[in-house]
Amino acid sequence: MGAPDVGPIVTARLSLQPFTSAQACDVLSGARRPEWAEGYPTPGDVEVATWVSNPRFGSPDARFGPRTIVVRVPGLCIGGIGFHGVPREDGTVEIGYGIAEEWRGQGLGSEAIAAFVAHAWSLPGVQRVIATTEEDNTASVHALLGAGLVPTPLGGGSLRFLCEAPVG
Fold first, then answer.
1. Would you call 27 exposed, middle or buried from its count of C-beta atoms within 10 A (0-12, 13-18, 19+)?
2. What are the tens digits of pLDDT across the range 99-128?
3. Which of 12, 77, 158, 164 has the largest count of CB atoms under 10 Å?
């Protein structure tokens, strides 16, 4: 049996590509790749690079690994998206994401989240997708709402967004 498919997830404007250990090394070293947009990597991407570069990092299923968000034209990496791990016993996976500030406000976050959630339904054990953000993080709130996730207040200024697997 071969390794699970971890090819890109492609939308009209984006390609969500597996985040590689070579990319992680460049992020952590401060190197700049020509295909990286201004504002990338974000602080969240640096955190992900730290995890990926750790020899103990690794999901038992590579399909649950982090991805870069690439705008297909002009081919620039503008952020990242990924699961916080494999599904919990109840089938819940949490996602995290970030887009360079210069690329916000164009619907790209919603497009990436919607594609990633649709991809989640093809993965074993996933029954619901959640994401948590602060109420005052308007970019994140708009992106999650635009992707069709439903908010629930958690208290303390936080919101949890939820999307249940389609029936059938």
1. buried
2. 999 999 999 999 999 999 999 999 999 999
3. 77
Superfamily of segment(s) 9-164: Gcn5-related N-acetyltransferase (GNAT) (3.40.630.30)
Supply 23's token pair.
């990319």
Summarised one tens digit per residue, pLDDT across range 86-97 is: 899 999 999 999
- Reading the block at residue 13, the tokens are 């404007």
| pLDDT tens digit sequence for 44-72 | 999 999 988 877 665 567 788 899 999 99
Strands (E), the chain: 9-10, 14-18, 67-71, 76-83, 92-99, 128-134, 150-155, 158-164
Residue 117 CA to residue 129 CA, distance in Å, equals 7
Task: Give the bridge partners for 163, in sequence order.
Answer: 129
CA–CA distance, 42 with 109 (Å, rounded to integer): 14
Map out the domains of the chain as residue ranges: 9-164
